[in-house]
Specification:
Elements (H helix, E strand, L loop, with lengths): L9 E5 L2 H4 L12 H6 L17 H15 L3 E5 L2 H4 L9 H16 L3 E7 L5 H4 L8 H17 L5 E6 L1 H9 L11 H25 L4 E7 L3 E3 L4 H16 L2 H6 L4 H7 L7 H5 L6 E4 L4 E5 L7 E3 L17 H16 L4 E5 L17 H19 L4 E7 L18 E3 L6 E3 L1 H10 L8
Parallel strand pairs: 1-2, 1-11, 2-3, 3-4, 4-5, 5-7, 6-8, 7-10, 10-11
Antiparallel strand pairs: 8-9, 12-13
Helix pairs in contact: 3-5, 7-9, 8-9, 14-15, 15-16
Length: 445
């Protein structure tokens, strides 16, 4: 049983702009769909919003210092489209670009490699008003945004991703309606999937036209979707949810076609040449993973799919997600066999939310998070032993942050954030991860 990671293995941490930056109305930033959605009464737990979040926009020097203390080799951030292009297109916001200039320079000065994701769910509201991801024109506007951002930062940043979890952004935002912009429907979900795929293809073309030396990918979220029973309806629901969640983006982007359960309905949306644009050979293959789920037929859902709660006694995180490191190993092996081939694989999000308590000695003994990370890192080592070319792991997340519809009620960070004072406190998991990132062997049972 391996306990050490390969030489040159890249250790990192990830965050997202809307979840940490705050300063939503400062220095020319435009409004995003999450600004709008989070201010609708009852949409977010506790009626929270990202107006301040972790105030990273002002406190980034402190956060970069924490990254350096953590000893990571890379940091994955996202740029906020409405901070760079307040209307989503047209005249860029120089102050927004200057913010990312300063941040990238500081990260590099700390001997950390910046990785940038262009879209982590914060579509400019001005583009949503024009149809959002239902409007094919948004794909071209995304390409313009990608080109502009690469032109500004591509001389220093080499690793780029077009989208983070486009499956979650399309499925939760345009199918189930519980994420921004809050649209529920079947056709709207399929159209959002296709327009996001088109944006990826056009974005990659635009980025490579600006700089040929970039390493570009997309960040896919993979969660095994298993049928809740042997009933035909449950098995069909699991196949359909697997197609929607796990395969609707990598299949067309890698192989040039949509998964079979979606083909017939998407034929009405696809235009000639679209799949040729969407299919772009990536330079690396990036995945996020958290859990697995059991799927049942649900007649009230737009796609007639539903997820069962985990059975009593099953170990879960505070999100209610099953802790199943064996599923992580299986996902990594399947990704290699189905998609990545010889491409290097990077895990760009994995982590867990648990209830954290600041104790009297100011320490946060998050032993369950440490156990989770130890088990999931063990699954990565098992996958490497099985021949999967995993080259790096980025923990989610560096900081406690705004957890979308759950507001500030869930904490994923290695660093605790006191939302009243914005004080940062490294948790015990921070020190555990720092030891691993700096070369310590992984203790395994």
């Amino acid at each position: 049983m391996a306990t050490s990671f390969p030489d040159g293995f890249l250790w990192g941490a990830s965050t997202a702009a809307y979840q940490i930056e705050g300063a939503v109305a400062e220095d020319g930033r435009g409004v995003s769909i999450w600004d709008t959605f989070s201010h609708l009464p009852g949409k977010i737990c506790g009626d929270d919003n990202g107006d301040v979040a972790c105030d990273h926009y002002h406190r980034w020097p402190q956060d970069v210092a924490l990254m350096r203390e953590l000893g990571i080799g890379a940091y994955r951030l996202s740029t906020a489209w409405p901070r760079i292009l307040p209307e989503g297109r047209g005249r860029p916001n120089e102050k927004g670009l200057e913010f990312y200039d300063r941040l990238v320079d500081a990260i590099m000065a700390a001997d950390i490699e910046p990785w940038i994701c262009l879209y982590h769910w914060d579509l400019p509201q001005a583009l949503e008003d024009r149809g959002g991801w239902q409007n094919r024109d948004v794909a071209s506007w995304f390409a313009d945004y990608a080109h502009l951002t690469v032109r500004r930062l591509g001389d220093r940043v080499k690793h780029w991703a077009t989208f983070n979890e486009p499956n979650a952004a399309s499925f939760k935002g345009y199918c189930e309606g519980d994420h921004a912009p809050g649209i529920r429907g079947r056709v709207t979900a399929l159209r959002a999937i296709h327009v996001m795929n088109l944006a990826h293809g056009l974005g990659v073309e635009a980025m490579r036209s600006e700089r040929a030396d970039l390493l570009i990918g997309n960040i896919y979220n993979f969660h095994p979707r298993e049928p809740a029973s042997e009933h035909e309806e449950d098995e069909a629901a699991a196949l359909l949810l697997d197609a929607l969640w796990n395969r609707a983006f990598p299949d067309p982007q890698i192989h040039g076609h949509y998964p079979e359960p979606l083909v017939a309905e998407l034929e009405q949306i696809i235009e000639p040449g679209d799949l040729d644009i969407i299919r772009q050979k990536p330079d690396y293959f990036a995945i996020n993973h958290y859990t697995r789920t059991r799927v049942r037929h649900d007649p009230d859902h737009p796609f007639q799919v539903g997820v069962l709660p985990v059975s009593s006694g099953t170990p879960v995180t505070e999100m209610g997600w099953e802790i199943a490191p064996g599923a992580f190993r299986s996902v990594l092996i399947e990704v290699k066999e189905r998609y990545s081939g010889d491409l290097p694989i990077y895990i760009l999000e994995n982590g867990a939310a648990f209830h954290d308590q600041v104790e009297a000695d100011d320490r946060i003994r998050d032993v369950r998070r440490i156990a989770y990370l130890r088990d999931y890192l063990g699954a990565v080592l098992d996958a490497v032993e099985a021949g999967v070319s995993v080259r790096g792991y980025f923990v989610w997340s560096l900081l406690d942050n705004f957890e979308w519809v759950l507001g500030y009620s869930r904490r994923f960070g290695l660093v605790h954030v006191d939302y009243a004072t914005l004080e940062r406190r490294p948790k015990d998991s921070f020190h555990f991860y720092a030891e691993i990132a700096q070369g310590a062997a992984l203790e395994r049972e």
